[in-house]
Amino acid sequence: MTTSFVEKYRPKDYKEIVGQAKAVEIIKKFLEEFPKKKALVLYCPAGTGKTSIVLAAAKENNYEIMELNSSDLRNRQKLEETLKPASEQKSLFKKSKIILMDEVDGVTGTDIGGIPELVRVIQTTRFPIIMTCNDVWQSKLSPVREKSIIIELKPLDLGTIVSVLAQVAEKENVKKDSQFFKQIAIKSQGDLRAALNDLQSYLSGEDIFVDITEKRDVEDTIFNILRKILKERGDFLNLFDTTSMSIDEIFLWLEENIPKEYKNEALAKAYYALGNADRFRGRVYSNQSWRFLVYQNVFQSAGISYAKPYAFSGFTKYERPKRVLKIWMHNQKTEKKKTIAKKYAKFVHCSTKRIMRDFSILLPILQKTEVQKQLRMGEEEIAFLNN
Amino acid sequence: MSQSDIWTEKYRPSTFDEVVGQQEIIKRTRSLVQALNIPHLLFAGPAGTGKSTLALIIVKQLFGDRWRDNYLELNASDERGIDVVRQKVKDFARTKSLGTVSFKVIFLDEADALTREAQQALRRTMENYTNTCRFILSCNYSSRIIDPIQSRCVVFRFKLLEKKDIEKRIRFIADQEKLVVENNAFETLYEVSEGDCRRAINLLQATASISPNISGEMINMIAASSRPKEIKVVLDYALAGDFVNARDKLLDVMLKESISGVDIIKAIQKEIWDLQIEPEIKVRLTEKTGEVEFRMIEGSDEFVQLQSLIASFVLAGQGKAI
Fold first, then answer.
1. How far is A265 from chain B (nearest CA, A)?
2. Helix (H, G, I), strand (E, B) or coil at A113
3. How close is the nearest chain A Cα to the Cα of B295, in Å?
4. What's the confidence (pLDDT) of residue A216?
5. Which of these, B137, B40, B119, lies nearest to B82 by C-alpha position?
6. Quick one: DSSP state of residue B272?
7. A281:B255 CB<8 A
């Protein structure tokens, strides 16, 4: 097995890092001045050198790296078990170390208490913590932002990528004209890792005809996806493979934005397609029959796209899905109602859902003092009912 | 009779003799209880027809005063996930029953709210604890209970209560509470409660909280407060071509009144024939409505399906159908 170019030519020290001089300066300073600031966040699109920079920094200072990436479950307990001791003890051979938390924006809702624990560790750590993420401005990361230096890595420019590719090709003893490197570089859209991988695959498959004008699957933004489906007419069967966003999340975006483009008959047809997609999605969930995902995919892409009689033009501003937020906000508001319904439901051997539905009929009954006493309602609940 | 001020509880029958309707089922369960042994039971039928009541009567008859120690009630639509159910069942079943009967009873209400996987897991649980526990499951549609569970249970199908049954119960309660009930009130109560005795009693009590003289008009007034009347507004928006407002309003109504998608669909279905559109299109819309209702029961997302229906109404507003 040959090693990948990405690993083989990974920068070994600060000098070899291309196109991120400013970031290197800041990291240098951060490590020198530690523990003035205890943590640092690198954020940027994929393939611009986050990992390389951290690895180079470790080599320069002869540090070890302790890494926690998104494949580990990062809830409070897990972090307490692994990260906390690591942040307090010296490693074997008394080397100092950098703690690398990859993809902190991947600490999700299921990693309960993950972020608060992370903040606690940042406060007490004896070693520098470096975090990476694609989007540092999410609200859940705000406590982390406050405690950290933040560096944005810019996508690499064309010239930089071309020169790296040329250098690598030279070391590999291959001769190609500059046009070839440029093509690959353009395709990579600033992602050096992608460019190196492409280069390697083209070089290893010399006798195969390779169409290098074919566009690489870059992360499509949700707006591009929406534009394609809602503006153009096409199959778009593989469209959802080009994004890391889940098909269900895209579903919500489509649901929200269809009426911005479609009217009348096209509108009805588009929602008919969306309804069908939903139907198969329901079957996926209720029977765990993943096979049905294929059908959801078709209705959600081609089905909606072909619902229009012709392609639409012009610019449309798409919006974030509102439904989930609305439901959430509503639930916050009806929390009281729910606790009351729950108490009552238990008492009358019935489901909370049914009680919520019949709430308006039950209101006069729930307003009786004796009933309120019997259900042991709190003051706030009583105030809610009598209002 | 319990001492509650909530009439559905105060007047919940606690013996077989008090139950109205379902006479065949009563006869059979009574003989099972007399033998001090029951199999797993599955009660299928519409809401408010006596499923929970009968389950309670069974345990009260079996265990007498100690029924609370030997009885666990769980509501599948409220318990999140089968793990909760399993844990509670396990904890409950671990200890021996108290008294002369050798098993305990677990009542799992609205069991059709459990997913298929949860039901598969439940089936194992039922087997594991069959020596110490009997299950009574209730559901609206037995078709939503997987076959292996059905085959482990004796299935009883509850019918909608007839008018005379509900009237009998309401008369009894009215006498006890010293209410004056006008004749047309029984009719109205039966109509608006659609054979759901719990709903009828709740309506009676809500109305009585205003006045001890119960009339049909008053009941209608109270019942109307729970009807999704704003559905008309949603449909009007849609027919006028304003999809976005129609759907926003719809979500509002569903959230604010906690109305389920199925109830919305029922309201829409009734509303269609009063709309100012071509009769032919009404038929097409009804077909679409029926399909949407079916999909909801099948497990589709209620709001997505309703949006699709509303989009059809937008088209209908222009005299077209999809």
1. 6
2. coil
3. 7
4. 45
5. B119
6. G
7. no
Q: Is B16 near chain A, with CB under 8 Å?
A: no
B154-201 pLDDT tens trace:
999 999 999 999 999 999 999 999 999 998 899 899 988 888 999 999
pLDDT given for residue A139 in this prediction? 74
Find out whether the peptide bond into A35 is cis, omega within 30 degrees of 0.
yes
Helix (H) or strand (E) holding B124: helix B116-128
Does residue B295 sit within a domain?
yes
Residues of chain B contacting residue A274, judged by C-beta atoms under 8 Å apart:
304, 307-308
pLDDT for B74-98, tens place per residue?
Answer: 988 877 667 777 788 888 877 877 7
Query: What value does the mean pLDDT take over residues A179-195?
Result: 79
Q: Which of A259, A361, A370 sits opposite B244 (nearest CB)?
A: A259
Instruction: Name which residue leads in pLDDT, A276 or A84.
Output: A276
Which of chain A's residues have a Cβ under 8 Å away from the Cβ of B257? 357, 359-360
- Residue written as tokens 């649901």? A255
Which is more confident, A267 or A353? Answer: A267
> Are residues A102 and A227 located together in one domain of the fold?
no
| CA dist., res. A24 & res. B220, Å (int) | 75
Average model confidence (pLDDT) for chain A?
81
Domain of residue A182 covers 158-204
User: Looking at the domain assignment, is residue A382 inside a domain?
Assistant: yes
Confidence at residue A76, expressed as pLDDT on a 0 to 100 scale = 65
The answer on A356 and A298 residing in a single domain is no
How many CA atoms lie less than 13 Å away from B176 in the CB half-sphere?
Answer: 13
Ordered alpha helix ranges (H), B13-115: 23-34, 51-63, 81-94
Q: Is A155 helix (H, G, I), strand (E, B) or coil?
A: coil
At A121-144, the pLDDT tens digits run: 888 888 888 888 877 777 777 888
**Nearest beta carbon to residue B222 from set A271, A274, A361:** A361
* Cα–Cα distance measured from residue A154 to residue A20, given in angstroms and rounded to the nearest whole number: 8
- Band (pLDDT 50/70/90 cuts) for residue B35 is confident
Work out the percent of chain A whose per-residue pLDDT is above 90: 17
Whether residue B144 sits in one domain with residue B197: no
**pTM > 0.80:** no
A:251-280 residues touching chain B, CB 8 A cutoff: 255, 259, 263-265, 267-272, 274-275, 278-279
Considering the domain architecture, whether residues B235 and B219 belong to the same structural domain is answered as no
Sheet holding B133-139, edge to edge: B71-75, B104-109, B133-139, B40-44, B153-157
Phi, psi of B26 (to 5 degrees): -60, -45
State which residue of chain B sits closest to A276, comparing Cα positions. Answer: B305
Residues spanned by the domain of B170 = 163-224
Model confidence at B215: pLDDT above 80: yes
Contact B149, B117 (CB under 8 A): no
The pLDDT value recorded for residue A207 is 39
Rounded Cα–Cα distance for residues B87 and B79 (Å): 11
Query: Quick check: B177 contacting A, CB < 8 Å?
Result: no
